[in-house]
Design a protein that fits this description.
InterPro entries: Aminotransferase_I/II_large, AspAT/PAT-like, NHTrfase_class1_PyrdxlP-BS, PyrdxlP-dep_Trfase, PyrdxlP-dep_Trfase_major, PyrdxlP-dep_Trfase_small
Number of strands: 12
Low-confidence stretches: none
Largest sheet: 7 strands, mixed
Oligomer: single chain
GO molecular function, one term: transaminase activity
CATH topology of the largest domain: Aspartate Aminotransferase, domain 2
Order of helices and strands: HHEHHEHEHEHEHEEEHHHEHEEEH
CATH architecture of the largest domain: 3-Layer(aba) Sandwich
Number of helices: 13
Strand content: 5-15%
Number of domains: 2
Bound molecules: 4'-deoxy-4'-aminopyridoxal-5'-phosphate
CATH class of the largest domain: Alpha Beta
Helix content: 25-40%
Domain Aminotransferase class I/classII large: 44-393
Structural class: alpha/beta
CATH superfamily of the largest domain: Type I PLP-dependent aspartate aminotransferase-like (Major domain)
Protein name: Aminotransferase
Cofactor: pyridoxal 5'-phosphate
Strand order of the largest sheet: 2-8-7-6-5-3-4
């Protein structure tokens, strides 16, 4: 278990800056964005940085939205989302992952999965409650948990254990203040997945300590070697797990801003109260696009997944052939090779790689202390770009390491 307060005090720049709420002052801007501002406007740089499919949203989805606009569908939707979208989400989760939810009161549609994560943290965190977050993990979890009053507890999901969360590590992190466990498998940044057997002992600990689980399953469709297993599908876990997902990744719909949360109706009703007063509803066109993607876009999703699978082989084999150890990413679209043998800090390595070889990757330390010594490379890029990035990386390693 790591130290509980990972943020450094930020500098005050004016008299007004001390008027900004302390928790907002204390968190730093996203390490990924800051890094990628360095690449802006330079076409020579190959970016394997941002976690976004390189596909545009399929044509029939865009066409469905154009028709909806022409019909004048420009109003608010019900707070919880279009009833037909909630029904499609419930059907889809049942058919794809065996999860059963009533579309009436166990599904809410949100502004991306990002809003769902924030709503859940706001709804369940009281000051001082401990929020357990595996490290390395998605860059937004610590700041949003902290902004919502939580005390952060990072547990190690180390390379040595295949970047999985283990019952031993979780057990050690539990205190009487533990309230929430945030998990994300398939994982950003490591590509790790959890099996039913991996989840079993975790679920026992969660139940024994009456925790709520926020399970971010935004990459659930993108598993390459086995079917995704949600922790919510284990006995007794549905009622204490909020499953959070969306359309950004598997359906190539990042800009539409549609996600969802599913779970126990009492917990969801608490989240819905906040959503009503803040977002009101997810964008109507995004919701119409999401209905179309679930009704007629499953083959597009499968096609994109096959592309990612091929790119994964190309890229991971390429990394290994130039001497970088890389744990097999079984899901999502990230490789997380180790640079430990170079003795370099991931930030120095990534900056030098960017400046001298024109390849942008994300230094592992931004994903928490467990990420140091690694680089996150998104392989949601064309095979030609991946091949060029590998060549540049190989020359860089030969000259500099
Ligand atoms: N969770 C994880 C693990 C992610 O990688 C991302 C996007 N990078 C999100 C949530 C947010 O996705 P969105 O809000 O677009 O649904």
């Amino acid at each position: 278990m790591y130290k509980k307060q990972p943020f450094l005090p930020q500098e005050h720049t004016s008299l007004l800056s001390e008027r900004i709420a302390p928790r907002v002052r204390e968190i730093a801007p996203s390490g990924i964005r800051a890094f990628f501002d360095l690449t802006a406007g330079n076409n020579e740089i190959i970016s394997l940085g941002v976690g976004e499919p390189d596909f545009t949203t399929p044509e029939h989805i865009r066409a469905a939205c154009i028709r909806a606009l022409e019909r004048g569908e420009t109003m608010y939707t019900p707070n919880a989302g279009l009833p037909e979208l909630r029904a499609e989400i419930a059907r889809y989760l049942q058919e794809s992952f065996g999860l059963e939810y009533h579309s009436q009161d166990e599904v809410i549609v949100t502004v991306g999965s990002s809003e769902a994560l924030d709503l859940a943290l706001r709804a369940f965190t009281a000051p001082g409650d401990e929020v357990i977050i595996p490290s390395p993990g998605y860059i937004a979890y610590s700041p949003i948990a902290y902004l919502n009053g939580g005390t952060l507890v990072e547990v190690e999901a180390a390379a040595e254990q295949g970047f999985k969360l283990t019952a031993e590590a979780l057990e050690k992190a539990i205190t009487p203040r533990s309230k929430l466990l945030m998990v994300n498998f398939p994982n950003n940044p490591t590509g790790a997945v959890m099996t039913y057997e991996d989840w079993e002992p975790i679920a026992e600990i969660v139940k024994a300590h009456n925790l709520i689980v926020l399970s971010d399953e935004i990459y659930a469709e993108l598993t390459y070697d086995s079917r995704h297993v949600s922790i919510a599908s284990l006995p007794g876990m549905k009622e204490r797990t909020i499953v959070i997902s969306g359309f950004s990744k598997a359906f190539a719909m990042t800009g539409w801003r549609v996600g969802y949360a599913c779970g126990n109706r009492e917990l969801l009703a608490a989240m819905l109260k906040i959503h009503q007063y803040t977002a009101m509803c997810a964008p109507v066109l995004g919701q119409i696009a999401a209905v179309e993607s679930l009704r007629h876009g499953l083959r597009d999703k499968d096609y994109m997944k096959e592309c990612f699978r091929q790119r994964r082989s190309l890229f991971v084999e390429g990394l290994r052939s130039i001497g970088l150890h890389c744990h097999e990413p079984q899901g999502a679209f990230y490789a997380f090779p180790s640079i430990r043998h170079t003795g370099r800090k991931s930030e120095d390595f990534a900056l030098q790689l960017l400046r001298e070889a024109g390849v942008a990757v994300v230094p592992g330390h931004v994903f928490g202390k467990g990420g140091e010594g690694h680089l996150r490379c998104s392989y949601a890029a064309s095979p030609a770009k991946l091949a060029e990035a590998l060549e540049r990386l190989e020359s860089f390693m030969k000259v500099k390491m």
